[in-house]
Amino acid sequence: MSARSDVVAPPIAVKIVISGGFGVGKTTFVGAISEIEPLVTEAELTEASIGVDDTSAVSGKTTTTVALDFGRITLDDALLLYLFGTPGQDRFSFLWDDLVDGALGAIVLIDTRRVEDSFPSIDYFEENRIPFIVGVNRFDGGMRFDLREIRDALGVSDAVPIVECDARDRVSVKDVLVALTEEVLTRRLG
Amino acid sequence: MTDEPRAGHRPPPSTYDEDPVVRPFMLTGGRTQTVHDGLRIETQLRAAPAALSAPLRFEARRIVELCQQPRSLADLSAALRAPLGVVRVIAGDLITEGYLRIEQQPAELSISLIERIRDRVRAL
Ligand SMILES: Nc1nc2c(ncn2[C@@H]2O[C@H](COP(=O)(O)OP(=O)(O)O)[C@@H](O)[C@H]2O)c(=O)[nH]1
Ligand SMILES: [Mg+2]
């Protein structure tokens, strides 16, 4: 397929966004599958970042940073998959436009003990018509809900896939990524 | 997408040597945005080998070195341990100056490409 001259064609770069509340397993998820250590890059908030309390101030002024998880998977020699984990709080939503632009789709991770933490992410992806699925992380000590209850609690349509996942387990993370690609295909073909 | 500068576009060369030493210290000069159409966090950037002999310093030089192989802003940010916003501005300048170029990416992912992604992920 590749007509190689001395300059090799660049890989096609595709990205998937992982969102959800704090402590929901985003960093773990990215780290479980990334071929590089899940790197945390910093996005700068230079605009008024009122109410940002879980970020570290750098220059004392209005500049604060937000940690983004960044993972990379080489799918083949011409295809790169990037994963970006981003905090799901409303106040970070200005970051999302940038992250989500051109994304294949998104995965919203939820902890059944705090489903409401995922609302801003879900609202955002719905409003912007980004294909997304919900990954339910089973935390020890978390109550078991059935998927119907979770769907009702989230208020997402029946069309949005909700899958169980263990962000610590590579195979499980892989399954979630595959489920997202299936959802993207379904939307495209439907 | 649009007819904005992309791969292949050759902006005017920066032949004027205005403060080549001071400039790197300014880094981003307080700017937070350099707009290049199609420059996303994952967009592959590549520098021409000739850019290695350009009078660039610090981050700009490192970016040109790293981008002898295609790399994204995210890769560069991680490699340089610099915030994305900073890398975006420096890379944006390098693009404007013609040292770095944005590699073309498909405007829309085809069905067959999405299927390929799915199959490759499944096979990981
Ligand atoms: N039981 C369980 N624990 C998890 C899972 N994912 C993450 N954790 C743990 O939850 C904590 C927070 O995870 P982290 O990835 O840092 O969350 P983040 O804030 O969304 O990045 C860590 O101690 C993880 O080990 C999961 O799927 N199941
Ligand atoms: Mg985290």
TrEMBL record, chain A:
Protein name: ATP-binding protein
Keywords associated with the record: ATP-binding, GTP-binding, Hydrolase, Nucleotide-binding
GTP-binding in keyword set: yes
Keyword Lyase attributed: no
Native organism taxonomy: Bacteria, Bacillati, Actinomycetota, Actinomycetes, Micromonosporales
Recorded family membership: Belongs to the GPN-loop GTPase family.
Annotated organism of origin: Paractinoplanes tereljensis
Classification via InterPro entries: Gliding_Motility_GTPase, Gpn, P-loop_NTPase
Gene3D superfamilies recorded: P-loop containing nucleotide triphosphate hydrolases
GO MF annotations in UniProt: ATP binding; GTP binding; hydrolase activity
Automatic annotation (TrEMBL), chain B:
Positions of region (Disordered): 1-22
Pfam families, alphabetized: DUF742
Classification via InterPro entries: DUF742 (IPR007995)
The protein's name in its UniProt record: DUF742 domain-containing protein
Species of the source: Paractinoplanes tereljensis
